[in-house]
Specification:
Distance between the termini of chain A: 62 Å
Oligomer: heterodimer
Largest sheet of chain A: 7 strands, parallel
Strand content of chain B: 25-35%
Shape of chain A: elongated
CATH architecture of the largest domain in chain B: 3-Layer(aba) Sandwich
Number of domains of chain B: 2
Radius of gyration of chain A: 22 Å
CATH superfamily of the largest domain in chain B: HUPs
Distance between the termini of chain B: 56 Å
Helix content of chain A: 25-40%
CATH class of the largest domain in chain B: Alpha Beta
CATH architecture of the largest domain in chain A: 3-Layer(aba) Sandwich
Chain lengths: 332, 278
């Protein structure tokens, strides 16, 4: 049997399908149309309703492969990869896209080894090569300093993880129809070795900074931890998230989940404020693909200004309070 | 408690500046270092060794000069180093790299835990760690931020949940919080920065590392499938490399002299409005 069709691997938590699943469908739809093949959304979890699955169809899926089972409630890589590998061997998809999340970047390499598939990480652009029909995968590497285009000429499936927020979720078409296939878990595929003992949600105001449309980040220039209050206020006007440079995290002004950069998180929001951040190459690697970058720094030679769309050189302790004041008036 | 740590030698980029003209990274004279994210794995391994005993073997695949990275890890406190080096490994993607490293680790044999960095700062894929776990059928925790406990069957004082097998309890950092997992050993953990603060090599460690012989392994002395190695074993091909310009040439207003903060901020608000961001 020949490998055919484009799969997107959806993600769900507590029966709710996550936004990244819909972003993958807008990527997948484009590829499936170019290949003139079917777009299938595969989703594993527990208590995902048909109504939820319909949303995937409205967002572009021709078919949804839905597997609900209590044992699949939590993502355990050994279980998920066994189930997915089994499905891949049965259905033989040509392309599999997953989000470059902690789940996608864990399960995809695990499966790629076992299916002898080509896998490209954290892609920001995907296309089909005209003559061959091969998937062309473009991804930043070396801290975003190069963009490499990669293909998998002789192995199937072709697998890629796609950077979250690198595309918009597909626009829903209420009239779209498709098929929901309810799959039954073959419990012999459950690995059973690893146990999940618990989950601790991020404390306080911590929104997932990779999900935020607006990130306001502070760095060494803030001088002390308490001054993150004005960054939080700034983020608040946009219902955005707070981020930080490594310098701020290393000084214990804010915890590690907020760190943006090479040893932290990569973010691509619509709007990024870099306040008191000089723009070391490691920090730039984590944010320079943001749509709009605003920098405030006292040093006119700071590298952050080279990647900014709008910058103010001066004392952030004067500029940020003024900005918060004017934003407060705008929001009113 | 025997630990294996696969590491990678990468170009040192922390002091690299951008080229004003091209907007790309200046790479001349760039030194090679241990992948900074691997240092957290090395530190975690050394802490576990200090507590539970055993030994740490570091392994890398690379050119003969990559033995420098292994020696540095030994100077920090690891015991042995193994270098996978040979022309047959050239052009390996993450699939072929995971295969070669897995076979070498299988040859090392006696291990309870593999620790790896979350990803390397050059390739940025994060695929080799999970790939090794897949090849060796080890339990896997990625993005591990904390080792909570180690339950060893022979240790009678510990009240563990898994009475038949040694296990490790860890926390892993996910998008919205931390998951706590119990993994029977042997396990593979990829770790994030939060897990530890890497120590510097000691003078004694440096002296020891100079004396340690680093064996070179390759197709000649390791049982490997040649068709799985290097470019021919790699499903993926890089077909193009672009150097995107990062310089944006945006509006910069300097208020240090005139002190007109209010006007500068109001221009910023205008910008945000024009972009429909407010």
């Amino acid at each position: 049997m020949e490998y055919k069709g484009v799969w997107t691997l959806g993600e769900a938590r507590d029966g709710e399908i996550k936004e990244v699943s819909f972003e993958l469908l807008s990527r997948g739809r484009k590829l499936a149309d170019k290949l003139d093949e079917e777009l299938v959304s595969v989703i594993l979890g527990d208590q995902i309703s048909d109504q939820q699955a319909e949303e995937l169809i409205k967002s572009g899926a021709d078919k949804v492969l839905l597997m609900n089972a209590p044992a699949l409630k939590d993502f355990i890589v050994e279980n998920y990869s066994n189930v997915l590998q089994d499905l891949i061997e049965e259905y033989k998809p040509e392309i599999i896209l997953a989000a470059a999340t902690t789940m996608g970047r864990t399960v995809m390499p695990y499966i790629a080894i076992r299916t002898n598939a080509g896998l490209t990480a954290d892609c920001t652009d995907l296309d089909i090569e005209e003559d061959t029909g091969n998937l062309l995968q473009t991804r930043p590497a070396i801290g975003g300093n190069i963009l490499a285009t990669i293909k998998t000429p002789n192995h199937r499936p072709q697998m890629a993880t796609v950077r979250p927020h690198s595309t918009k979720p597909a626009v829903k078409d209420e009239s779209r129809t498709g098929e929901i296939v309810h799959l039954k878990l073959d419990s012999s595929l459950l690995d059973g070795r690893v146990k999940k003992l618990g989950f601790r949600k991020n404390e306080g105001d911590a929104v997932n900074i990779q999900d935020a449309d607006v990130v306001a980040a502070g760095g060494k220039g803030l001088k002390k931890g308490e001054n993150f209050a004005m960054i939080r206020e700034l983020a608040g006007y946009f219902e955005g998230a707070v981020g930080a440079s490594r310098d701020a995290v290393d000084r214990d002004w804010i915890s590690y989940p907020y760190q943006v950069g090479l040893s932290g998180k990569t973010v691509t929001p619509k709007l990024y404020f870099a306040v008191g951040i000089s723009g070391a190459i490691q920090h730039l690697a984590g944010m320079k693909t943001s749509e709009n970058i605003i920098a405030v720094n006292v040093d006119p030679d700071a590298d952050i200004f080279k990647v900014s769309d709008f910058g103010i050189v001066g004392d952030l302790f004067e500029i940020i309070p003024e900005l918060n004041k004017q934003l407060a008036e705008e929001v009113k | 408690m025997n630990i294996v740590i696969p590491i990678k030698q990468v170009p040192e980029t922390s002091n690299v500046k951008m080229d004003e003209e091209t907007g790309t990274m200046k790479r001349e004279g760039v030194e090679s270092i241990i992948n900074p994210l691997d240092l957290y794995a090395i530190e975690t391994g050394i802490q576990l060794k200090e507590k539970y005993g055993g030994k740490i073997t570091v392994i890398t695949m690379g050119p003969p000069s990559a033995d420098k990275a292994l020696k540095e890890a030994i100077a920090m406190g690891c015991d042995d180093g193994i270098l996978l080096s040979g022309r047959e490994f050239a052009g390996s993607d993450t699939w072929a790299t995971s295969y070669a490293l897995s076979e070498a680790i299988r040859e090392i044999g006696d291990f309870d835990l593999i620790l790896a960095g979350e990803r390397a700062t050059d390739g940025d894929t994060g695929q080799v760690g999970p790939g090794i776990a897949s090849w060796l059928d080890l339990t896997l925790s990625t993005y591990t931020s904390k080792v909570v406990d180690l339950n060893l069957v022979e240790d009678e004082e510990v009240n563990y949940t898994n009475v038949e097998q040694d296990s490790i309890i860890v926390e892993r950092m996910v998008e919205d919080g931390y998951e706590k997992l119990e993994l029977p050993l042997p396990a593979l953990l990829t770790v994030v920065k939060e897990i530890s603060f890497p120590r510097l090599p000691t003078l004694r460690g440096k002296q020891r590392s100079r004396k340690v012989e680093i064996p070179q392994w390759n197709l000649g002395n390791l049982d490997l499938k040649e068709e799985y190695l290097g470019l021919q074993g790699s499903p993926t091909r890089v077909v193009n490399i672009d150097h995107p310009k990062v310089t944006r040439g945006g509006t910069i207003i300097d208020v240090r002299e005139d002190g007109n903060v209010e006007e500068a901020v109001s221009k910023l608000i205008d910008y945000l409005k024009a972009k429909e961001l407010v």
